[in-house]
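Researcher: Next sequence.
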Amino acid sequence: MTRSNVSVQPSQLPPVLLAPEVKAFDATPADALDSVNRHFEAFKDENDTRQSLAEKGRSVDVLVEEKLARITQALDEAQNRLDSILRQQRRPMLDGAEHDATSPQHRQYKSAFHDYMRSGENAGLKALELKALSAGSPTDGGYLVTPPVERDILKRMSVASPIRSIASVQQISTATYRKAYSTTGPGSGWIGETVTRPQTASQVIADLSFPTMELYAMPAATQTLLDDAAVNVEQWIAEEVQVVFAEQEGAAFVNGDGVTKPLGFMTPPKIAQANWMWGRLGYVVTGLSAGFNTTNGSDALIDLIYAVKAGYRQSGSFVMNRKTQAAIRKLKATTGEYLWQPPAVLGQPATLMNFPLVEVEDMPDIAADSFSVAFGNFARAYLIVDRIGIRVLRDPYSNKPYVMFYTTKRVGGGVQDFDAIKLLKFGTA
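Model: Next structure:
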């Protein structure tokens, strides 16, 4: 890979392709994918021209850099449109056929919940809770949304939240999820049928704890909207809270401090991969502060991939934000191919060195000694814990004439296997 910071005068520049026209709206996923591919071809042509001039010792004018930046921005926008369209298609429909909406229990609870949401009448919900001998939803804490709506909100969040889409998810009914994890693996080996069994080595067991924290949203509605029989109140709640919940979760799953929010996967202490130990996240370095090495920048990515064990590596994913992705998009293999590639088919992510690339805006930008790229098996490494039950408390008094709906869910998270994620440090040590 060759990169340079030299520059030339505009009169010295050869003809280059203009960036493809950005469509205001790509109606179908196929249109959006075509737009991504067209913009990437323009990006490659412009970047190839820039590198060719640099290799010949000719300086690159600032206008060329600006044009490359515009094409990069257009490519990002095209990729975002494609992601948005695919997310819309993958979102589950409320009250779909998969739900047992015809059962008497569901119909009773749904009817009582609608009465509470529209008018504040909670007698029906109280009667159902008394019948079920439930003490989990006192009046001052709100009432649980119907199970189909809870499932749909969680499914929508798994589509909207990038980390939730690649991590493991566990549902619980208590406040904390605990699990024992063997950091060394059980003793094992081959032995003959009649041979005396040797004593196995003692395992090292880590007691992992994942407490759930309360996440809230407070959408507001007018009484006119609630009185409209054509409005699906459950769907309205799901639409209002799922994006907010996903944004808050996404930030916490990356950088959460574990105090009033989940513990993010970037929060544990970091250590050079050569000295890795349990409880730390191993990292490799780029060899240049705040950037990639100018002669073999792609080597750092190769080191990062092979820092992960083979069993984890096969299901690995890259995680980074958009600015970091734009910088990596310029890197090439020694054979001249670009390491970053757009989605090959609809429904698949962009790839980096043939591994899926997940865009997470809460990852840090490239800076001196920043950890801006993560790679690993996130399903193995990171656990999200959802406590069953999403509550809604109707509040018509705090902000008249609006009716506020204080909606809460409890969620936790943390690293469960510190050896399944590795980081790339933009520094020298």
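Model: Residues 166 and 379 are 6 Å apart (CA to CA). Confidence is low (pLDDT under 50) at residues 1-24, 94-100, 133-139.
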